[in-house]
Amino acid sequence: MVRRRFTLDEYHRMGEAGILGADDRVELIEGEIIQMSPIGSRHAGTVARIHHLFYRSRT
């Protein structure tokens, strides 16, 4: 099997062309497009708290 690695620019162009949609749960990791599972409520809450802490530290 031959794997093709993608650049960040190619990944963004796939989104612009509609190949990857806003609701697609994918990430570009080391050139590979990886399907991700949806985040749960605990994960979302932790991300929100960390975001809030970083935002407060900037002001």
Task: Write structural notes for this entry.
The chain is α+β, with helices and mostly antiparallel strands and 59 residues long. The protein has one domain (8-58). Helix content is 46%, strand content 14%. It contains 2 helices and 2 strands. Strands 1-2 form a two-stranded antiparallel sheet. The chain is elongated and about 45 Å long. The mean pLDDT is 93.
Topology:
Layout: H1 8-16, E1 26-29, E2 32-35, H2 41-58
Antiparallel strand pairs: 1-2
Provide the spatial order of strands within the biggest beta sheet: 1-2
What is the overall shape?
A: elongated
The H/E string reads HEEH
Q: What is the tally of beta strands?
A: 2
Average per-residue pLDDT, rounded, comes to 93
Q: Count helical runs.
A: 2
Structural class: alpha+beta
- Major sheet characteristics: 2 strands, antiparallel
How many structural domains in the coordinates?
1
For this structure, the quaternary state is single chain
Radius of gyration: 15 Å
Sequence stretches where pLDDT stays below 50 over 5 or more residues: none
How helical, in percent, are the residues? Answer: 40-55%
Give the N-terminus to C-terminus distance in angstroms.
50 Å
* Content of β-strand: 5-15%
